[in-house]
Design brief:
There is one protein chain. The chain is of the alpha+beta class. It folds into three domains: 1-61, no CATH class; 73-120, no CATH class; 124-442, Rhopdopsin 7-helix transmembrane proteins (Up-down Bundle). The protein contains eleven helices and twelve strands. The chain has helices at 131-156, 161-165, 168-189, 194-229, 241-265, 295-318, 329-352, 359-382, 384-392, 405-418, 432-442; strands at residues 19-28, 31-41, 44-46, 73-78, 81-89, 94-98, 101-104, 109-111, 118-120, 123-124, 270-277, 286-291. It has a three-stranded antiparallel sheet with strand order 1-2-3, with no helix packed on it. A three-stranded mixed sheet has the order 10-12-11. A hairpin with a 2-residue loop joins strand 6 (94-98) and strand 7 (101-104). It is rod-shaped, with a radius of gyration of 42 Å. The relative contact order is 0.11.
Length: 457
């Protein structure tokens, strides 16, 4: 026993146990005093009810050093105080790997709601029911119906003067290109796979290449006929229907050759692009299923068609001085001018949205609508007037007197000579009768190719 008659005790470490009284500084009735609120004798004993807290709060305040971290939060230990920490949220594409560490999810994953793990990023593609797809599909369907209607009409009235005068061979080739332009819309919206991606490479530029190759061949023929006619009455070379078809398919085959080389260098495949719609908010992140055609590859794919279009436009400008009565080049000129405007509007829209999260939808819709509008311009300006005359004014669909090559060329040259304003008239067009007379000399058949330059079309 000790002096105070208390037993002397020692713990396992040989230390005497402490005995303490715990005081709290309190203010009661504006009087400050220390009040005993507990004791320590081997363990803590507190009288919680006798304790006071700032603001008169009765509830025991929580210790900031002992708060457990929530799900998705890591402990950031306070320097010098290992028993205290701050809770730090695993934000962005991070997840809680352990108590003290946040790690980034894999490129094709995103964190779950609690940031305690990673889940796959949803895959999206352009759906047929999407508003971005409905409008292009509607335009394409109407265009295909109109194209089929024109083809049926031309086949039904294949031997009538207007159909003959329009150059039946090139007309059917051009209609094939227009049909392919409309059909491209369905390939661009279909679910990407190896087959669809291969067909996109082939047909995206082929339809326009065939169309512009046919128009370039026709405008070049008109230009050469009048250039030759101003100097000689002999027929230019390569103006027969067979020659025109060979030239057209030769020009279009360059597009196919380029695509074949592309297939050899880089076979087509479908990919999932996780960067295209990787937003700062992980919940909005999407993987985009698409073909491996970059913006640069697309420009190269359409570049040859653009070259044909520009060349055809140049020849349309060159033939603007053709006498007004020789009016076949006029609708071709209008077609090319309008087409150039469409594609000039396409370029800033397509590349201006390259950083948008809606890039896939905007670019696909812009491209398909531009291709369809180009085909619609050609169909509307070159064929609908002829169909209108064939169906509703058959009295104008009659043969006219065929003049000799010498007479036609003389009329053309004299018209330019005695009418100085003729060369200033916009979008003049070479009279079909002139072309037909030249073809008749090369191919003396019983068929009579006539001019429809005076028809109201």
């Amino acid at each position: 026993l000790g002096i105070a008659a208390n037993p002397v005790l020692f713990n396992e470490n040989g230390d005497a146990p402490g005995r303490y009284e715990i005081y709290q500084y309190q203010i009661r009735n504006q009087t400050a005093e220390y009040k005993i609120i507990g004791q320590w004798t081997d363990q803590l004993n507190l009288n919680v009810r006798s304790m006071q807290w700032p603001g008169g709060v009765r509830q025991i305040p929580s210790s900031i050093c002992s708060l457990p971290c929530q799900l998705g939060e890591r402990k950031k230990v306070v320097k010098g105080i290992p028993c205290c920490w701050h809770c730090e949220r695993c934000d962005g594409y991070q997840y809680q790997a352990d108590t003290f560490t946040c790690k980034m999810c894999r490129f094709d994953l995103r964190p779950n709601v609690n940031h305690t793990g990673c889940v796959p990023i949803p895959i999206v593609k352009l759906e047929w029911s999407s508003p971005w797809a409905v409008i292009p599909v509607l335009i394409a369907v109407l265009g295909i119906m109109a194209t089929v209607f024109v083809v049926v009409t031309f086949v039904r009235y294949n031997d009538t003067p207007i159909v003959k005068a329009s150059g039946r061979e090139l007309s059917y080739v051009l209609l094939t290109g227009i049909f392919l332009c409309y059909a491209t819309t369905f390939l661009m919206i279909s679910t990407p796979d190896v087959g669809i991606c291969s067909l996109r490479r082939i047909f995206l530029g082929l339809g326009m290449s065939i169309s512009y190759a046919a128009l370039l061949t026709k405008t070049n023929r008109i230009y050469r006929i009048f250039e030759q006619g101003s100097m000689s009455i002999s027929a230019p070379k390569l103006i027969s229907p067979a020659s025109q078809l060979v030239i057209t398919f030769s020009l279009a085959s360059v597009q196919l050759l380029g695509v074949c080389i592309w297939f050899g260098v880089d076979p087509s495949k479908a990919i999932i692009d996780y960067e295209d719609q990787r937003t700062s908010n992980p919940t909005m992140a999407r993987g985009v299923l698409k073909c491996d055609i970059s913006d640069l590859s697309l420009i190269c794919l359409l570049g040859y068609s653009m070259l044909l279009m520009v060349t055809c436009t140049v020849y349309a400008i060159k033939t603007r001085g053709v006498p007004e009565t020789f009016n076949e080049a006029k609708p071709i000129g209008f077609t090319m001018y309008t087409t150039c405007i469409i594609w000039l509007a396409f370029i800033p829209i397509f590349f201006g949205t390259s950083r948008s999260t809606e890039k896939m939808y905007i670019q696909t819709t812009t491209l398909t609508i531009s291709v369809s509008l180009s085909a619609s311009v050609s169909l509307g300006l070159l064929y609908m007037p002829k169909v209108y005359v064939v169906l509703f004014h058959p009295e104008q669909n009659v043969p006219k007197r065929t003049r000799s090559l010498k007479a036609v060329v003389t009329a053309a040259t004299m018209s330019n000579k005695f009418n100085p304003k003729a060369g200033l008239r916009p979008n003049g067009e070479a009279k079909t009768e002139l072309c037909e007379s030249l073809e008749t000399q090369n191919y003396p058949t019983k068929q009579t190719y006539i001019s429809y330059s005076n028809h109201a079309i």
